Amino acid sequence: QVQLVESGGGLVQAGGSLRLSCAASGRTISTYAMGWFRQAPGKEREFVAAITWNYDNTYYADSVKGRFTISRDNAKNTVYLQMNSLKPEDTAVYYCVAGRYINFQSRRGPPSSDFDSWGQGTQVTVSS
User: Fold this and answer.
1) In what side-by-side order are the strands of the sheet with 18-25?
2) Tens digits of per-residue pLDDT, 25-55?
3) How many other C-beta atoms are found inside a 10 Å radius of the C-beta of residue 65?
4) Rg of the chain on CA atoms, in Å
């Protein structure tokens, strides 16, 4: 499996921005779909964004569409999540994920079970 390490989380004010990074090792991510999930206290883990390996197609949860941007740099074996116009409800632990075969047909986004590699998570806290 690919090992994933997130970084870039922190405390920001509402309306601010953060860029999360996910450094991969063990395998190249060039043939993996990459993504981000998040989990807020007391809530289920939810899909945030994903990017495919073949055509760099991107998918976003409705709650972050237009504010967040996922990207990948295969040469650096790194995936990013640029988060703009942050809201308090974005507060969560954010997890970088990787998988080979992902179902993007659900309106709720791909299931977490489709991703077999997970990072340890990085905390994002947005103050009001």
Assistant:
1) 3-7, 18-25, 78-83, 68-73
2) 998 988 999 999 999 999 999 999 999 988 8
3) 11
4) 13
Mean pLDDT of 2-20: 97
Each residue's pLDDT tens digit, 48-88? 999 998 888 999 999 999 999 999 999 999 999 999 999 99
Q: Return d(Cα 71, Cα 64) in angstroms, integer.
A: 15
Half-sphere exposure of 76 (CA within 13 A, CB side): 9
Please give the Cα distance from 63 to 88 (Å, whole number): 12
The DSSP output letter for 101 is S
pLDDT above 90 for 107: no
Length of the chain: 128
